[in-house]
Amino acid sequence: MTLSLQLPKLAFLFAENQEFVGEWELLDIGLSEDAIEEMATDYSLLEAEDMQDLLKPRNKFAIKETSDAPCLLPVRKEWRERRCLPQKLACVLE
Q: How far is residue 65's CA from residue 46's CA, in Å, rounded to a whole number?
């Protein structure tokens, strides 16, 4: 078990680190949530509850080609802020 103070470390999320990190847990040390939200970062972490409105129940025999499943992609913070995608990526998504 790997412990982290307040927030997960970026390295926890890389597949090549799985054997070293394993399961991880956060220890709340009382940092201000407002201060954390105001910090500049290029990353954000979505958790299962953040995605509930996008996920639709589906038949257990459904295949992804016939379902209307959302496509989750990592997106740079500046793209989110400008609400745009690079042309190359936007073409792939059409």
A: 24
Interval 40-68: pLDDT, tens: 888 877 777 777 777 677 777 766 655 55
DSSP 8-state code for residue 33: H
DSSP for residue 3: E
* CB contact at 8 A, 24 and 45: no
Model confidence, pTM: 0.51
Q: Give the three-class secondary structure for 27.
A: strand
Amino acid at 11: A
Quote the distance between the C-alpha of residue 56 and its chain's center. 18
Q: Which residues pair with 4 in a beta bridge?
A: 26
